[in-house]
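Record type: ASSEMBLY
Status: queued
Input:
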Amino acid sequence: MLEALQLEFMRNALAAGILVSVVCGVIGTLVVVNRIVFLAGGIAHAAYGGIGLAFFLGWPFVAGTAGFSLLAAGVMAAVTLKAKHRADAVIGVIWAVGMAAGVILLDLTPGYHADLMSYLFGSILAVTVADLWQMGAIGAVVIFVVTLYYNDFLAMSYDDEFARLRKVPVTFLYCLLLGMIALTVVMIIRVVGLILVIALLTIPPFIAEKFTGSLRGMMVLSSALSCAFTLTGLWLSYLWNLTSGATIIMVAAAGFFAALLWERLRSMRAPGQVSGAGNSQ
Amino acid sequence: MAEPIIDVSRVWFSFNGQPVLQDVDLRVPPGDFLVVIGPNGGGKTTLLKLMLGLLEPTRGTVRVFGQPPGKAAHRIGYVPQNVHINRTFPVSVLDVVLMGRLRSGKGWSRHARQDRLAAQAVMEQLGVWAYRDRRIGELSGGQLQRVFIARALVSAPEVLFLDEAMASIDAQGRGDFYEALTELNRTVTIVAVSHDMMILSSHVKSVACVNRDLHYHDSGEITQEMLDAAYRCPVDLVAHGVPHRVLCRHEGK
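Status: finished
Output:
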């Protein structure tokens, strides 16, 4: 690992992994507690349309993808707020249309697109210093917004009806959250690719929720877990010459099953006792 | 009657074309302890949500303290029907109560010292201060109910709305609970919704029966005519002195 660190792309990959992990922990926590994992998946896959658009128009990757993801997030916000009972079906449509649009836009773009796979499964080893600055900027915005509205996000996520009564701007915060998910997705695509975004957004918060008693704690622990998974995955992929994105997800999945097993063992040791975390009625 | 603090005037409410409430009038005077009873699906919770401003009437007007309910939100406390939402949510009991002190759009939303002191005072009053650092999912139904009442009271509201507040409390705890509400009623107007079977304390000051339309009775007693009109079925009125017990018997159903 030490000799690997002398390579610039390896250092960039490490920095990208840490940056993405911190943002993933914060936004992933809000995604999980608000039960909008499917919606986040829809935004991630619709982002493929943005990649196609960026190629077709010759725009930089971030401009096309961020624009398209934010658009998809805006449509999903409108649909989930207006027609809640059929929101999942509409999300599924946007999910598919985004991907189809991406494929067709790429068909229409002359030339050979060798690095398309890297958008589907990530290309953390190809992260440049300029990419790092963009990730840092997105991360700073996300953390600033979540810190600013922490108590409002907490109230909205726990009980949105009561939050509305307390005059918390629930609709605005919900749209803001979807917008931040879109930006986070653009960031994560670089690391694990859009197919695997959902795993990095949901696995660390799912584990963290069992071990923490506050939303803030869940965010911090998710970020730490995400960091551990990303860096371990990166190291293993270097060691065994595997695709980094898929290796990172496999490490996270191992953590996921270990957490489930640990929970099962704990409930066996203390039968009938109302255990601290993660118990439902 | 003094100037009403809640004024529901000629209110109609329909959901998907189905009328839920028809031409409902209700005036709640300050200091009242009103219990809204009626069969399930009769529109009790709808009426409550109209008074809270969570729903808009199809026709008619709702005024709380002379204002639309949304404008009077800071003077209202609300205890929802379902206290079991999000039981696995990572949040401490104290943080749930502090949600009642949220002020919107303040930015850098941190709870000030006086918020914590207010939370402590009301949690001690309701006997849940000892659980402040517990995770919300660890509490029993009755404890949760008191935590949610603390959340409603921590903003020092002038009127408290309770939706099926007795649902999570066992029969034994209900007496204590009514005592606590009666004590509270010295300073706060109370509007409580309850479904067909409940114990009415002698401290209840008025009763409204809701079953699409509303029958108001400005004393704590229920008359046979009132119940028959509201339930449209034979209802037994059994009085064991004080408090009264109201039971609904459905035959051949």
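Annotation: Chain A touches chain B through 35 residues (CB under 8 Å).
Annotation: The longest helix of chain A spans residues 8-33.
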